[in-house]
Amino acid sequence: MNRTQTPSPLADLVDFLETRHGVTTYPGADPGRVVATVHGNTVTVCLVGKWWHRETQSGARRNLVPLYPRGMEWSVARVVAEELDGEGL
To answer: So what's the pLDDT on residue 7?
Structure first.
């Protein structure tokens, strides 16, 4: 995260993923989305309203699984890191 910018939940999540868990992140296709990847495994999360969601794909349909409310970015980062390691969801 660029510390000269105003902090945001999205920037906090990216910071936690990259610095605490060593996860590579990319901006998602839409605002509020983050794509996290490690060793070819990919997880997409997005902020919808006041909740973070894990995005899954079923055919052409996107499904959102609620994770944690906004403000709990460290918990979202932990869940994403665990899933990327093959231990989570």
So the answer is: 76
- Which residue type, as a one-letter code, is found at position 30? D
Strand partners, 45: 34, 54
Give yes or no for a contact between 64 and 54, defined as CB atoms under 8 angstroms apart.
Answer: yes
pLDDT of residue 57: 86
Indicate whether 18 pLDDT > 50.
yes
Average pLDDT over the chain reads 89
Could you tell me if 23 and 37 are in contact, meaning their C-beta atoms sit under 8 angstroms apart? yes
Instruction: Say if CB 14 and CB 23 are below 8 A apart.
Output: no
Give the count of beta carbons closer than 10 Å to the beta carbon of residue 17.
Answer: 26
Beta strand pairing call for 61-69 and 51-58: antiparallel
